[in-house]
Amino acid sequence: DTAVSQTPKYLVTQMGNDKSIKCEQNLGHDTMYWYKQDSKKFLKIMFSYNNKELIINETVPNRFSPKSPDKAHLNLHINSLELGDSAVYFCASSHVGGQAEAFFGQGTRLTVV
Amino acid sequence: KNQVEQSPQSLIILEGKNCTLQCNYTVSPFSNLRWYKQDTGRGPVSLTIMTFSENTKSNGRYTATLDADTKQSSLHITASQLSDSASYICVVSDLSGYSTLTFGKGTMLLVSP
């Protein structure tokens, strides 16, 4: 019955590799997000999609490319991984609207070595 | 630029004691403010939500206050338990079409026996 699920939970990879993180929500939400939480525990939004359409694209390197095949899925593909990409990546979803609550996945801990 | 500042950065208290966490924001136009609890290795989970017209809201041993004039909020935890050890994140939503969320850096609370 997991509401927002992301895979994998842990990902260790070498610099220069390409990797993907998958996210799925079964809450019927219109909007999905990707957040990055760095070593200082600060959550920063990367992307926001509404009904498969890109809404928010913060200053994220072009190596990061989100893909939303349908409104229940928002995957994150990262090319040419760098050491600084090591962080915990959280997927979230919500309805559209001022009081909508964002529901978060459990996070994917990415370690680039 | 929308910002959310939280204090203290970290806090250690004895089990059974009370504590208060602070949040100041400059998000405009303001829609609502949420306090999230993030356990280690998990995604954030919403504790309370407060809109412009609400001054206080409780959720069990958690009580949040909001002063929309001074743009300050607090989260008071009563009779702390070991399970309260977590990061508490203040999140403010604006009134833009997709309700952009601005996250504080969080307060790391450790409740010791």
Give an overview of the whole structure.
The complex is a heterodimer of chains A (113) and B (113). With 113 residues, chain A is mainly β. Helix content of chain A is 0%, strand content 51%. In chain A, strand 7 and strand 8 form a beta hairpin. Chain A is globular. By secondary structure, chain B is an all-beta fold. The radius of gyration of chain B is 14 Å and the shape is globular. In chain B, 36% of the residues are buried. The interface between A and B is medium-sized, with 27 and 24 residues.
Give the helix proportion of chain A (percent range): under 10%
Low-pLDDT stretches of chain A = none
Low-confidence stretches of chain B: none
Oligomer: heterodimer
Derived from helix and strand composition plus strand pairing, the structural class of chain A reads mainly beta
- Secondary structure class of chain B reads mainly beta
Number of helices of chain A: 0
- The shape of chain B is globular
Number of strands of chain A: 11
Helix content of chain B: under 10%
CA-atom Rg of chain B in angstroms = 14 Å
How many angstroms separate the termini of chain B?
A: 41 Å
Q: What would you report as the Rg of chain A, rounded to the nearest angstrom?
A: 13 Å
Largest sheet of chain B: 6 strands, mixed
> So what's the overall shape of chain A?
globular
N-C termini distance of chain A: 34 Å
